[in-house]
Design brief:
Layout (H helix, E strand, L loop, with lengths): L1 E3 H5 L8 H10 L4 E6 L5 E5 L11 H12 L12 E5 L5 E4 L7 E8 L8 H9 L7 H13 L3 E5 L7 E6 L5 E2 L9 E2 L5 E4 L4 E4 L3 E2 L12 E7 L2 H11 L4 H6 L8 H16 L2 E4 L2 E4 L6 E6 H8 L5 H10 L5 E3 L2 E6 L9 H12 L19 H15 L3 E2 L5 E2 L1 H4 L10 E2 L10 E2 L4 H13 L5 E12 L4 E12 L4 H20 L5 E3 L9 E2 L6 E5 L2 E9 L1 H6 L6 E7 H5 L17 E10 L4 H10 L5 E10 L8 E10 L8 H19 L2 E3 L1
Parallel strand pairs: 4-15, 5-8, 20-24
Antiparallel strand pairs: 1-3, 2-3, 6-14, 6-15, 6-16, 7-14, 8-11, 9-10, 11-12, 12-13, 17-19, 18-19, 21-23, 22-23, 24-25, 25-30, 26-28, 27-29, 28-29, 29-30, 31-33, 31-34, 32-33
Helix pairs in contact: 4-5, 5-8, 12-15, 18-19
Length: 681
Amino acid sequence: MRCSIEWLNTYLTKPVDAAAAAGHLTAAGFPCESSERLESGDTVLEVETTSNRGDCLSHIGLAREIAAATGASVVMPPSTSHGSDEPCERAIRISNSDPTRCPRYTARIIRGVRVGDSPAWLQERLRAIGQIPRNAVVDCANFLLFEWGQPTHVFDLAKLRGNAIEVRSARPGEQFLPLGEGARPITLDGGELVIADAERPVALAGVKGGAETAVTESTVDLLVESAAFDAVAVRRSSRSTRLASDSSHRFERGVHPADVDAAAERLIHLIIATAGGTRLAGSVAVGSPLPPPRCLSLRMSELRAVTGVDMGTADAVRVLAALGLEPNLCTETIECTIPPQRLDLTREIDLIEEVIRIIGLDRIPVDDRIAIRPMRSQPQVQAIRAAKDCLSGIGFLETVTPTLIAERAAAPFFGAGESALRIADERAVAEPVLRPSILPSLLQVARTNRDRGQSSIRLFEIACAFWLGSERHEERRVLSLLICASEEPQHLLRELRGAVDAVARTITGIHGTDVTPATGAHAEWLLPAFAPAGAIGMRGASIGCIGLLKPSVAADAGLDGAVAAAEIDWNALAAAFPPMPSVGALINSPSIARDLSVVVEDAVPWTAIERVIRAANLPHLESLAFVGTWRGKKLGPGRKSTTLRLTFRDATRTLRKEEVDPHITRLLDALRNEVGGEVIA
């Protein structure tokens, strides 16, 4: 905010120069970014304010801060005015259909004004802070905004149709013409909070007045509006209409309903003093009852414990009184009544901050040493690191991609009953959808690298996916993997399956996962013709999908050839982290290995063969490993030969083949009976 030092000093009993004002404000938490000396002799400071201190977006608010730091008092400007006995209610009817978003709306009437140029002193004040004088009435409203911090608006009463004002929601398709040179009519979506007369919106509440009821040189009678609007409602209206103003800037930071009337009386005083006229008696106010004053307690023991300063109670009371908090000492507890403009004070710690920032943050002792205790990483963090290390070690590259994608890229990855989550932002017109899967992002990365000459691409990412369910939006963290290489599709699938197993073994300690044919909406992006494409299972529960992408999905991403992809529910996978390690003595005895080739139908998955072998409970079986799959004319159509390796070992002695061979024979019979396999030894 631009702050005029001459203007600021009109509210202080002890004037300050620009350097002193900048120093006091900076120490109080309002740093001065620049200082400009004007030809008039005035100095203007550019003061930075935090978003929770909307009360300091005014000269009086900054004067309060300087007064608290210097011991001066704040002199409030006059706001008295006398008028006719005619009640205001006879001239205007006010209704408020949305007291939640407009807790207080007030209107006052002035008749017989003479609209001309404002006095030189008023124009000088406005020009000093970069404002352009318009006319006496508009200048008074702008002056009050930067003096008091309360946004107001003035209507030409004769231009209000039906002598009525209604605070309501806009209707879809309503037109509104805002103030401003070159302004064009705006079509309202419906739901924006507007100020309307009997026929049309005449102001966008808290954001902008309307050109059709603007004050001009021919204006005689005025309606002075002073109100409080909900910060969120103002922000939404401002964003949806792409209109912003000094008023919306302040309303978005909070205006208390109890401040409305005092600011309006000050504006009435200014208008009558500069443009003449006679006010009607009283005002018309609608909305919710004013909330009671907020009270907070400050324990001196807590103040000393938090700050580390052995502060006297009298010093704390003095600071709180200087800030206008009306402190009342009760033994070692200070009871404070919070003024309406201090919306930021809600807890005891806020009062502690107020005291320490006024007496000086440099008074807080700083220890030369800080005792710290390093904490172990959380299991969730360790699991992610372990998965990344595992995948990086087997040749995959991690990606970090944007969450927003194009709608066409997202379409294949929605399940039944799911739809897109979109954002309403003009900057995201091309990519407005929150991705329902990480795979569209990996496909885009793969295409970029393929276009630059990379023929073998292995990618992974752990991130969140989003979609709109039947009742609310859903979100889950997933691990997505993608392989794009000029190799046989089955080779890509086997490599990807190995990567999935490696991650599962790293995270859970489980050696191998189940893959069954995928059914249902969550496998729509898979090409079902190839095994082992399907649903990834672990401990009897499905945790994801793996397979070849449909050619149409890959083609939409600009890729040709086979693309293998997998997506795993990360939370389901990481729930078993960390794996329980097993420790045993080193085994010195040799092992016996047997390689078997089982000829089965194409539809028989590896998991079925593995299940038969595990169920056989072969003595001394140490490990089972998949070696490969072969298809050829000799086997006939629809058949394959799956080669596996069995390793047997006894920890205490050397096994003999006579001890293993009978169990191999029993296993061959089980494979023949259970999966219809013909075994070639």
